[in-house]
Fold these 2 entries.
Entry 1:
Amino acid sequence: MSAIQKSVSTADTISAAEFSAAESVLAAIQSVQVEGAKKPDLQSMANPSSDAVGYVHGVSQTEQSRLLEQGELLRPVVYSAEIAKILESHSSRVVELGSGSGTNMVYVLSQYVGIRRYTAVDFNQDAYRGQLEKTFQNELSSKRLSLEQADIQQPCAEHLKGEAGTVFFTWVLEHLKEPKKGIQYAADCLQPGGCLIGFECDWHVAGIVTSDAQLNQQYAGFVQSFCAKQQGSGNPHYGQCFEQDVRESGLFTEIQSQKIQLESSMQFANMLLNILSGALLESKEEIEAYRQKLLDVFVSTHVEVTRIVAKK
Ligand SMILES: C[S@@+](CC[C@H](N)C(=O)[O-])C[C@H]1O[C@@H](n2cnc3c(N)ncnc32)[C@H](O)[C@@H]1O
């Protein structure tokens, strides 16, 4: 079953024309990547040999707001009943990796009162700190929350080793040149029996389908440019490698991997365009022009994320 077939199977109705448009836009995204200079080779992308060129999205105020909006939109996807159960049961100590502008913290700290200590680790923490200190004044002064600046591709800090009942991250390993080191970091933070919860995306399956073939090609071009840009310091298709990396690490048991198809909506189309627009500053105006045209010809979105839940 193709990705499109899987995702449309959850939609209410879809016409043959929509189905065929969806198939062709995915094929367009996949073919430009395969034909392009940055051909996706899953093994080498998991360990790209080029030098890191930095975090593709940057840490501007606009990006910080984008992350908060995106977090809110994806909340029903991330916080399913299953994840809620884990956070409620054995998570008095949580370590979040790549915590960014705090979208998970806002939700988790208010929802799960049983969490006594939450450590938010981010490579760019000093850039996020000002805003986070305002938002989380009480949690920081009570020491329920601490903000750590650290690169999760480096060895885990001694004081975090074995600290957490749960290690949690959303959309982070895809930004690492060496994601296996991030997995090692996660395992090092966990107590024996602790639980890893991670979400990663895959731009191979991040389509916007319209009834206009030219717009479909244009969107595929944005995705191609974005993937080429992220490639140097990460892997835009990491959702495809995530399960394999966790399994091969040999650090976890009871590994459950799930592909989650996001429902088709204009909101998700806008989310995808915001991601592209933030990273492809040189194409920002083109993306905005595309967004305007999209309103009249939008058919569907096809977005798939990978969720891993595993025990140490
Ligand atoms: C796409 S953002 C996701 C932020 C947050 N998890 C969310 O869902 O809103 C990726 C985050 O990973 C962080 N990051 C990237 N490389 C990192 C590294 N090597 N070590 C720690 N954090 C890193 C970035 O600074 C950024 O905050």
Entry 2:
Amino acid sequence: MAIVLQRKRKLRPSNDLNDDECKFAKRELKWVKYSAENLSVDFCVFYDKSKADYIYAKLEEECDWNTGKAAQVMIFGRWHNIPRKQVHVYKDGEDYIGEHKDDEKDLVKTSPIASLSLGQTRDFVLKHADSRGKYAKRKMEKIKIELTHGSLLMMNYPTNIYWYHSIPIRKKATGIRINLTFRDFVTK
Ligand SMILES: O=C(O)CCC(=O)C(=O)O
């Protein structure tokens, strides 16, 4: 699972958008809101199928996929495994991420965490900390969101403080899924 991608070419600066890109950036998105106790998640189809297909193909064509040491980065003196933190490739439904909260020391806790999905649809499951495991303090409904090809999920503050998230095993999911996660880190 979990392989880093590195672009072979440089990205253009974000203020260098052509007319089509400006139109795309300004278009209306149909957001769906998920709310529960201390949970706020926004979800939308960000790229239609043809755009999502195009980006998926570009990622496959233009990126080198690394593993091991080559897939790590040093942040504030600590080695981070980029695959776990930023880019995930799930080769099929056997690849998964267990229940966790994002706990990077330098994460700006109040910033949303944005997660873009490409390829195989997978479930994203949110569970309140109080409702986990054998010694759960109380019963709370878990929340399941289908992360479809081209979709964008925004996990807003304070969701990540109170809720665990995971991508569970789905044996029937046979395709590859690429996930790009965007987080805001404190810079010194
Ligand atoms: O693949 C995903 O959508 C979730 C990734 C994730 O849980 C994480 O980066 O902490």
